[in-house]
Write a structure and sequence with these properties.
Length: about 290
């Protein structure tokens, strides 16, 4: 049985059915490969539009598609047991641990992702905001005029970009989107607990610069536990996000799993792309050590 609690009138969207996948913990290369495989399959009409929730194990630093690998202190990551992966989407570095990650994979003719990048970003953010409000958080979208400037650091959570999710003036949830042909892939992270500044230790910066950035990041971003004053489990966060997406985007979410085609494609993408040093080092730096490659 699907989950259906649409709220009419919030946006002129037809009621639609998407697949819901609630996944377990996977390594970074597998997570990125699955996201791309789902988006490719949806764009080819071989799988339905999908909302996926997942976690990461071991912790992983992900780079934006065009970010320099040299932004990252690879030895510091290795010492902490962190993997390194490059996302198919843009943006800056994120440390994935103690969080909920979501992915939307669809074809570009779905009205929830149709139009330009920012149109889809704004539309999907309504589902994210509604989910966070279901948890009791006074979440809001950052203004559409917000843009990251050239002086922004390598850390993704330093400032909220347009339509990212904030509590007051502090960023809570960031997302990034990739479009190619009919393929639309958007994913993002919701930090549930822990020290939001742990990523700073993995950046290739002088100690003094790290400490300045740590203080700035602590002032500009936070976790669900910090804002809500209590711990929230992955399962509770998923339940709230499902409620938010069904209400704000008029969705019926049917629990499902990857198709055999998606499973095979994800395995190929992991081996030839996301776990391969050529992809990780494609911008600005030598490849990571073999512990991060297939």
């Amino acid at each position: 049985m699907g989950i259906e609690t649409p709220t009419p009138g919030e946006e002129d969207l037809p009621l639609a059915t998407w697949r819901l996948i609630v996944d377990g913990e996977r390594d970074g290369a597998s997570n990125m490969a699955i996201d791309e495989a789902m988006a490719r399959a949806a764009s080819e009409g071989l799988a339905p539009p999908t909302l996926r929730f997942y976690q990461w194990s071991p912790p992983c630093v992900s780079l934006g598609r065009h970010q320099k690998l040299s932004d990252i202190d690879q030895e510091a990551c290795a010492a902490r047991g962190y993997e390194i992966v490059r996302r198919p989407t843009g943006g800056r570095a994120i440390l994935h641990t103690d969080e909920l990650t979501y992915c939307v994979a669809a074809a570009d003719d779905d009205p929830r992702v149709a139009g330009g990048v920012m149109d889809a970003y704004h539309r999907l953010s309504q589902g994210l905001v509604a989910g966070l409000r279901a948890l009791g958080l006074p979440a809001e979208e950052a203004p559409g005029a917000n843009r990251a400037g050239p002086d922004v650091s390598a850390a993704c959570f330093e400032v909220p970009s347009a339509y990212e999710i904030c509590i007051g003036a502090r960023k809570l949830m960031g997302s990034a989107q990739y479009r190619a042909g009919r393929l639309v892939l958007q994913h993002g992270t919701l930090p549930l607990t822990g020290d939001i500044t742990r990523l700073i230790d993995c950046l290739a910066l002088p100690i003094a610069a790290r400490e300045r950035l740590r203080a700035a990041l602590r002032a500009r971003a936070g976790t669900v536990e910090e804002f809500l004053g209590r711990p929230v489990s992955f399962a509770e966060a998923v339940q709230a996000m499902v409620q938010g997406f069904t209400q704000a985007l008029r969705l019926r979410l049917e629990p499902g799993a990857l198709t055999p085609y998606e499973q095979q494609l994800a395995e190929e993408l992991r081996a030839t792309k996301y776990a391969h040093p050529d992809w990780t080092s494609r911008v600005g730096g030598a490849a990571p050590s073999s512990r991060f490659s297939a």
